[in-house]
Amino acid sequence: MKVLAAMSGGVDSAVAAARAAEAGHDVVGVHMALSKSRAQTRSGSRGCCTVEDASDARRAAERIGIPYYVWDLSDDFHHLVVEDFLSEYAQGRTPNPCVRCNERIKFASLLERARILGFDAVCTGHYARIGTDGPDGAPSLHRSRNLPKDQSYVLAVMGPDATGRALFPLGEFEDKQAVREEARARSLGVSTKPDSYDICFVADGDTRGFLSRHLGSDPGQIVDADGTVLGEHDGTHGFTVGQRKGLGLSRPAPDGRPRYVLDVDPASRQVVVGAAELLSRRELVARDVVGFEPIAPGREVTAQIRAHGEATPGIVEAVPTDGEGVLRVRLVAPVRGVAPGQTLVLYDGDRVLASATLERHA
C-alpha cells in the first residue's frame, strides 16, 4: 500500500512512519509547514512547525530510509483553523482547534492531496485504533490502549470515510515510554523530545493575549445571574464558560465563594458569572453531527465534552432527521462547564459513535 506519513518532527509521528515502512508499505514522509513564520523556534513544549521540527522530521525520515518532503499548508491552516478559532471566540463560543486541524488539515487538505497523488492512506502518530466493526464492516474508530494519551476525541470528526484511509500505528501502545524506547532503539533522534501541548499556534501559551491582539477591545459588563453589574471587561472573547481565574472582579461573592463564568453573550457584550453549581448540565444539545453509525433515540452512550475529560453515561433523546434538528443527550449525572462550540463525542465502550458541536443552551 502506498502511504503518506505525516511527520511533525516529534517522536510519535517518527515511530508511526517507521512502523508503516517496516510493515512493508511504500512510505513517503511529509512535513506540513503550518506556520507563516519559518524563522519561528520552539520554546520547550510550545510552538509548532518550527525550523527545528522540520529538521527533526527530515533526519528521522533519512534514518527510516524514506523520501521526505515539506508541504506548505500555512494558508489552509490560517484560514481553516486560526481564523475559525478567532471567529468562534468572537461569537462567544469555545472551539477546539485540534479538532478543526484534524478535520480540515490532516484529514481533508492532506488526505485530498494524498489521494490526487495516488496514495492509499495517510499515516499519523495519533493515539487511536481503527477497526472494521462499523455497519456492514465499515471502518470504526476506537480509543487507544494508552488511555491517558487517547486522541479518539479529536479524531472523531473525521467520520468513517477518512478513517478508512488512515493508519494509526501507535494505537496499540499502552504507554508513551514504550514509544520513546522504540524511537531510541531505531536511532530516530527524537526519543527525548518533549511533547507539544496547549494551542500550537499560540506559542507563548497566552491565549487571552492572542485573542486580544487579533480581536481588539470591545468593552462590556460582567454581571451576576440576576443581572447585577459587578465589573467591566475589555471583550467577551477573553472569557469562556467555566472560567474562574482572570475575571478581574474587585469584590467577592456575598457568600465568599468563587465565581465562575456561566455564559458569554457577545451581542449584549455581557459576561455572566455565578456559583459553581450553576455550571452543571444534565442535557447536552449539539448540531453538525458526524456519525460512524446510525444512532436512535433510547441508545445508551457515554458522552465526552473535553479532549481529556471523563466520559459520562447518558441516553440519546433525539437525533437529527434528514439534516434537520439536533442531537440531544440526557446524562445520568450532571457535568460542569458545558460551553457552546465544544466538541461532543459519543462512545459505545471504546468505540466512537459520533462527533458533534455543542449549542449554547440545553
UniProtKB/TrEMBL annotation:
Chain ranges of the tRNA-specific 2-thiouridylase MnmA-like C-terminal domain: 299-357
Region (Interaction with tRNA): 149-151
Subcellular location per the Swiss-Prot or TrEMBL entry: Cytoplasm
Listed GO MF terms: tRNA-uridine 2-sulfurtransferase activity
Sorted UniProt keywords: ATP-binding, Cytoplasm, Disulfide bond, Nucleotide-binding, RNA-binding, Transferase, tRNA processing, tRNA-binding
Gene3D superfamilies: Adenine nucleotide alpha hydrolases-like domains (2.30.30.280), HUPs (3.40.50.620), Translation factors (2.40.30.10)
Site residues by UniProt (Interaction with tRNA): H126, Q342
Organism superkingdom: Bacteria
Residues at the active site: C101, C200
Entry keyword annotation includes GTP-binding: no
Annotated InterPro entries: MnmA-like, MnmA-like_C, MnmA-like_central, MnmA-like_central_sf, Rossmann-like_a/b/a_fold
Catalytically driven reaction(s): S-sulfanyl-L-cysteinyl-[protein] + uridine(34) in tRNA + AH2 + ATP = 2-thiouridine(34) in tRNA + L-cysteinyl-[protein] + A + AMP + diphosphate + H(+)
Annotated EC: 2.8.1.13
Task performed by this protein: Catalyzes the 2-thiolation of uridine at the wobble position (U34) of tRNA, leading to the formation of s(2)U34.
Family, similarity comment: Belongs to the MnmA/TRMU family.
Protein name, as recorded: tRNA-specific 2-thiouridylase MnmA
Taxonomic source organism: Brachybacterium huguangmaarense
